[in-house]
Amino acid sequence: MTEQQTGPLWVDAPDAPTVEGRPMDHKAQPKKKDKGPVPARQGNGYYADHLTGDRLRSVTTILGGGVPKPALLFWAAITCTDAAIEALPQLVAASRNPQAMAELRDWIKRAHTRKKDERADVGSAVHAIIEARLLGQPIPEALQLGEELVRLDSEDLAPFVGQIDRFLLEWEPEFTASEMVVANPIHGYAGTLDFMLRSTGKVGAALRAAGFVVPEDADLMGDTKGLPLDTPLPTPTGWTTMGAVQVGDALLGRDGLPCTVTQTSEIHERDCFRVTFDDGSSVVCDDEHRWLTDTGVQDWQIQRQVASTVELRTTLTRYGQRQHRVPVAEPLDLPPATLPIEPYVLGVWLGDGKHTSGEISSQDPEVFEHIEALGYDLGPVQKSSREGGCPVRTVYSLVPALRTAGVLGHKHIPTAYLRASRGQREALLQGLMDTDGTWNKARNSAQFVSVDKAFASSVRELALSLGQRATMYEANHTGFKPGVHYVVRFTPVGVVPFRLARKADLVQVPSTVRSSRRLIVSIEPTITVPTKCIAVNSSDRTFLCTEAMIPTHNTGGDWDRVTSMGHVHGVYPEAGLQMSAYRKATIGRLRDGTRVPMPATAAVGVVLHLRPEGYRLYPARCGDREYAYFRHAQMVDEWSSRIASAKADDPVIGAALQLVAAAKAVA
Fold it and tell me: Cβ atoms within 10 A of the Cβ of 391, count?
């Protein structure tokens, strides 16, 4: 490759070899006129022209063998693994029966093929509907798929059929061909194009508006590809869910700043996984969901990257150690709120106040000093009505404020306080920790204890909003207030958890990065649930999700990107190469077998991407440049196929070498 090379492949190099004719000759086959006039695809990757005896390599087979798609290997492996997990009871039962085990093994290893067949059913439905439109006939009620008659209004097909109808209604395409077998005998390939349509309608107009050159008198190639909304999302004012969020809504980024939703996808039904972290938190997401991670085993090896769930799963460990970490979110950066009660005072009252009055009990006079310093008037010290209880003082004028805050008689942390400024939230945390919090010397962490699970969850949310890696767990306590308690624990990073001197003096935070990251410990398949993608305008394209406020990446920042699964949200990038081959076909076969020349077509086609919840129409370039790529893929596929099936005397390999006997020395 020369230094002037700028393209991604050698096709662009001035000295790149050209592919002339067929990369390899294929053996002819007997002519069988009784098989019909239309070339038929065989199971070995070839189209057989029974009238001429010619064998032409399938376009999709060429692309399958000539275009590397390593991610599909991972997909196939995951699909087969999932099938094995699903069949675990049957595997155990078959362990003593070799024949049953062999049958089950064969069923598992074909799991990915069955998945592809499901998509093929969708394609068949599309073709049937287009065919009916093209011929002006009624749309069939059912399709013969293999040995099964499947109705178009069945549970599996009905959602896709609905989206096809929507596409036809909105775009009003004028089809000129459907499932037409095309061939290029000179270059040795054949295939079946999905459809062609005229360029004079709305589709052509949209392509021209997007900057593509589309002649008025040229047809357009077309291809069809078929393929948890309850996840809570923190917002600057509270919470929403992934299902409810809309464009223009405000969320929060990893940097703690508010961000805006700029784009949302349709609802997906994709393979789902549960991503679990070392603090016990987890997120259910689909296979294409993106993550911002710090990846590496040693600190000096760690690099920040963006990767999909599938990519993280396939690289979960390195040298036997888990290597992907998600940064903990920064403290939420929100404006000061107008609050009825000073946050520290509310925290103290929530911890040690009487739920129906302004009385607060505390064994630490310093607590009352802090309250007075904030401008509150206090009543005289009173003895507790309970034997051995702490001194009690009344905070004057606190009851009306408690009533305004909605906490009188019902202790909880109001949402306004959980989304107040950083300083206000830290003051609230200090009030709570000065009363019901302690410092755990053994674990070098602060912990808050409550018998109320919902209240403890709010305290955890408060700590998370301050950028802490806070966890919560159950513990059985004995002694004072025995029973189940809920413990919130965190190692403080950038916050002072106590205002009370006797507790604050105990705090010694070790120098560690563990408190600023969450380590991914497992990514396991889970039940498929409806999912949705969003795009936000945060600085690093992240937003926070789940009650743990875990940063996750902007799924739609590059909305039509090529993903780890090798497609643009289901639209395979080689669709353009495929259509370029059909465009360069020299002949086509009508349904009755009549051989016709191919019509003029534009150097851009369209891909109809169907999902149960919606559809999209993508442009796909299919001009001379794409055809050059296809021809080189054809060469790679043909030679790979030849080598894989080579015999000992095949000229590609040659016969095995023999040692040459050394000549005897002459005396």
Answer: 16
- 3 state DSSP class of 624: helix
**Amino acid sitting at position 280:** G
Using the 8-state DSSP alphabet, how is residue 152 labeled? Answer: T
Task: List, for residues 3-33, the tens digit of each pLDDT value.
Answer: 333 333 444 444 445 666 665 555 555 555 5
* Contact criterion met (CB below 8 Å) for 84 and 108: yes
CA distance 327 to 304: 10
In Å, how far are 209, 350, 366, 376, 667 from 379, measured between CA atoms?
A: 76, 19, 15, 10, 126
- Cβ distance 261 to 253 under 8 Å? no
Q: Which residues does 162 contact at the CB level (< 8 Å), separation at least 6?
A: none
Taking residues 373-381, what's their average pLDDT? 93
Rg for the chain (alpha carbons), in Å?
A: 34
Strands 54-58 and 189-198: parallel
Domain range annotation of the chain: 10-57, 69-109
Contact 302, 295 (CB under 8 A): yes
359 membership: H or E segment, kind and range: strand 359-361
Task: Choose among 335, 353, 463: nearest CA to 398.
Answer: 353
Do 497 and 447 contact (CB within 8 A), yes or no?
Answer: no
Count the helix, strand and coil residues of the chain and give each as a percent rounded to the nearest 5: 30, 25, 45
CB contact set of 650 (below 8 Å; sequence gap of 6+): 642
**Could you tell me the two tokens for 299?**
């600190």
Strand partners, 292: 306
Backbone angles phi, psi at 191, to 5 degrees: -170, 175
In order, the DSSP letters of 304-347 are EEEEEHHHHHHTSEETTEE-EEEEPPPPP-------SS-HHHHH
Q: Report the Cα 85 to chain-centroid distance in Å.
A: 22
* 179 three-class SS: strand
CB-based contacts of 525: which residues, under 8 Å, 6+ apart? 78, 81, 82, 85, 271, 272, 273
483-488 contacts, C-beta under 8 A, 24 or more apart: 483/451, 484/451, 485/449, 485/450, 485/451, 486/449, 486/450, 486/451, 486/452, 486/453, 486/456, 486/457, 487/447, 487/448, 487/449, 487/456, 488/447, 488/448, 488/449, 488/450, 488/456, 488/459, 488/460, 488/463
What pTM does this model have?
Answer: 0.55
* 3 state SS of 198: strand
| Residue 212: other Cβ atoms inside 10 A | 15
Q: Give CA–CA dist 31/37, Å, rounded.
A: 11
Does residue 257 sit in helix, strand or coil? coil
pLDDT higher than 50, residue 562: no
Q: How confident is the model at residue 551 (pLDDT cuts 50, 70, 90)?
A: very high
Report pLDDT digits (tens) over 405-439.
999 999 999 999 999 999 999 999 999 999 999 99
Question: Residue 252: which of 543, 554, 555 has the closest Cα?
Answer: 543
Write out the two tokens for 50. Answer: 């029974």
Token output for 209 = 């508006």
The DSSP output letter for 300 is G
Q: Read off the pLDDT of residues 502-511 as tens digits, 9 standing for 90 and up.
A: 999 999 876 5
Spatial contact of 611 and 210, defined as CB atoms under 8 Å apart: no
Question: Which residues 6+ apart lie within 8 Å of 441 measured at CB?
Answer: 506
Q: Are 378 and 395 spatial neighbours (Cβ–Cβ below 8 Å)?
A: yes
Nearest to 203 by CA among 605, 624, 623, 609: 605
